Amino acid sequence: GGVYYYLTVVRTAQAASASGDTKLQTSTARTGELTILASASGSLIPSSQISIGFAESGTLIELNVQIGSQVKAGDVLARLQTNTTEEEITASIADAELAVLKAQSAIDDLYESAASARTAAISNITTYASAVRDAQYDLDYFTVPAEIKGMGPMEALDYAKAKLDAARAAFEPYKYYSAENDTREALVEALALAQSLYDTAVTQLQYVYVLEAAQNNLDKARKDYERYKDGPDANELAMAQAELNNANSDLSLAKETRAVIELTTPFDGTIMTVDASVGE
User: Fold this and answer.
1) What whole-number distance in Å separates Cα of residue 88 and Cα of residue 158?
2) How far apart are CA 77 and CA 271, in angstroms?
3) Does pTM surpass 0.70?
4) Where are the alpha helices (DSSP H) in 141-233?
5) How far apart (Å, rounded) are the C-alpha atoms in residues 68 and 64?
6) In 71-181, which ranges are continuous DSSP H helix?
7) How far apart (Å, rounded) are the C-alpha atoms in residues 145 and 155?
8) Non-local CB neighbours of 137 within 8 Å, separated by 6+ positions
9) Integer Cα distance of 229 and 13 in angstroms
10) pLDDT confidence of 209, banded at 50, 70, 90?
């Protein structure tokens, strides 16, 4: 076509120009094939290429293509027998399913325990609140001798103990004297008063201890209630949930494991190289 055009149009136009003839040249339009040729040396480069292979180790048991094969996206190129047997996969799935059940059971137990702990806390609050009330009442209406009034319970106890020790030491030399001995009688009376003061100090300390213990128990019961009133402890629940998530992930991986895996092509194309043989 090009040659024809050149001879009939360009060459004629050039001749006419040379001779001064400007006569218009015409040609009939026609349809046909156009061939474009390139004359050079080099390599053809594909617009898109990729190297693919199995992500696991094993034995190649099937190869469905060879160099030059035309493939479509999703075609199975080869199959690999992995190092994991069907029995091992089944056992792995069973273990993973058991782990999921245990993790879910742990979460359920947390909710049940939280409900029980909340109920127990309410009961303890009622019990210890009553104990605080009673202990405070006993302490408020306890008569403290003027001698130790205003002292702290431990200070009063130490003071009364010192007086008791002194009275006992004074009485010791007269212990075996006759009961009618005036000095012994006076020392016995002093010892009795010191003992009574000490007993009073001990009783006061007991009331203080009972009140403090009841208050501490009440505070703990209230903290337990606050901790479980809205359900399980947040940190414990987060850890249990993480365990469940991990167990579910392991189960998904176990279910995805195959004894035989396939290698498929990601897009249409032509096989350029094959670097493996069946049995390798």
Assistant:
1) 75
2) 10
3) no
4) 153-171, 182-228
5) 12
6) 86-140, 153-171
7) 14
8) none
9) 103
10) very high
